[in-house]
Amino acid sequence: MSVHLSSQAQDWQTQLRQSLRSANVPTLLMVLIHLTGDRKWLSQQYQCTRIAGLDDNDTGGLPDARQAEIRNAAWRAILDWKSGAPAALPAPAPADLVQMLATSIGEPVPESYGSMIASWLGLDKEFALDQQQSFRPREGFKVLVIGAGVAGICAAIRLQGAGIDYTVIEKNSEAGGTWYENRYPGAGVDTPNHIYSFSFAKQDWTKYFALRDEIQAYFVKVVDDFKLRSNIQFNTACESAVYNEDDASWSVTVKRHDGRMETLKADVVISAVGILNVPKFPAIKGLESFAGDCFHTARWPEGLDVSGKRVGVIGNGASAMQIVPAIVDNVAQLTVFQRSKQWAAPFERFKKDVPSDVRFLLREVPFYQEWYRQRLAWVFNDRIHASLQIDPTWPHPERSINRRNEKHREFFTHYIQAELGQRQDLLPDVLPDYPPFGKRMLMDNGWYRTMTKPNVTLVNTGIDEIHENRVKTRDGQAYELDVLIVATGFNAVNFLSSVDVKGRGGESLRERWDREGAEAYLGVAVPGLPNFFVLAGPNTALGHGGSVVATLEIQVRYVMGLLRQAMDLAGQERFEIEVKGDVCDEFNQRVQRAHDKMIWTHKGMSNWYRTSTGKVVAPTPFRNDDYWHMLRKTDLGDYVVNIKACESVQPSPQEVE
Hints:
The chain has helices at 7-20, 25-36, 64-82, 94-105, 113-120, 150-161, 178-181, 212-225, 318-327, 356-364, 368-380, 403-420, 427-430, 447-451, 509-516, 548-570, 581-595, 624-633, and strands spanning 142-146, 165-169, 232-233, 236-244, 249-256, 261-266, 268-271, 293-296, 310-314, 333-337, 344-345, 442-443, 456-459, 463-467, 470-473, 478-480, 483-486, 500-502, 532-534, 574-579, 639-644.
């Protein structure tokens, strides 16, 4: 019996056949296991080879005949699915997921990855978006979220899915946070956008590493797709948050766009302000009086044209590495005032489009994008974590911390030499004298090649002062400029510095953290701050790799798990939930002990991860899977929960609506 296909169905099949030629074979294997349930695809003959570097390993290192067999089997299985056949194995057990990932990446995978993969595939009910049957908030219960960047968007979606009344306050006129604010030329992600995105909001990306506009458009689209906009108060900056012990609530003072000050009340506050939102300026005499255009990268002037101008850039970190190659061919002269030498990794897919055939697979084929994400997550997550541990017996601590780190140094040194080409005279000026990964590893957007261009001057001497349009360095040289760009990063170690938070007894969080260095339990909860949670808090940044979006998803789920348990205990009464001081202290002692053995604290290292006293407050010392399990556990025993009787009170007009 013949089956007549519509022209649309025929076109889809034709496109599938064509796209399969460009498929990532290890990812197709995973699709086959889900669709067919046949475990033969996990046998040794289909074992893929280990991924080298950051490559996708599209062939899996398999013989041509095996690749053809997999593509043909996938063709049949996908067509059956398209015709209505359900996936034979939609929800593999965690142990099977571990074996599947190991088969596709060619190396052992810890058992701990199983349940984490399950959550990313949407198989863990704790991560389900619709949780309204699980949460029973008391009447009038309100949550206030500070910030509508990536963290705030994630929190809003989960709160909405739980049926909890919430409001997001955002200082800007649009959502997106750092992606809304940073509009400089070349701005983009240095993590693959297929994992720099929510697990529950897939996207048809045009590039492997999206530039700023596409990333920002994605997060705005998520806001609109999940209908969050009506719950966001834009042009509203948070000035302070004060805890009220009498009724277990928070009073949050905000400043509206017109300058009006208002106080909002909420039962729970979630800080989603992030760490890349307060620009950091160097202490340089005369900087504020520069005669031309002078601005921080996060405040790039709209419509600025640098064509034919003499441009100076202070700094050579992540922002500078994106800006400098992006503008060099348009300016008359580019002077880079280098603060410290940086390691940067090859960035082969920088600005590369995702081919249309590959986009079809990622968009149309079940389980394909999910497993493409899993393989990317493995490559960018924890592979180098072991190499960042200091070997106390290593004989060359001045250049590396262990044998593997020395191999990294050799690789990156050869890469820099190759990029400099005929300009090996620049090598002493660009080759770092500290171990690789001692600072955040950057991605090379063409930085080293740019340094060789005739209109580029690399200055290694510190700046002494700025007078009118002249930048004078400590060696007496002066550089006349039309535009001066400050690319010195953000005040990342002073968490929540933009908000004056006062907790139990009126204690200032800012003063405590200024005195002791920022710390929180699991980076999320702080003693003395009941019903207050921090997303992207202390010691949760990813110094060794991973996706901050994945971290935020598990942090938000952790907060939601705590709130659900507290609601179950409190019923229709008010409650306080506060992490125990000894629990927080023990955790942070463990954090610092782990950091003491890692590269960030290596002798002679200087990085933005540490305070002026040397305490590491920004990155996590833990593997991604270890941190995931700490948060997935959600132990209410780590907290003190106090139940407070509610009084019948008429809400004031100033309360969050």
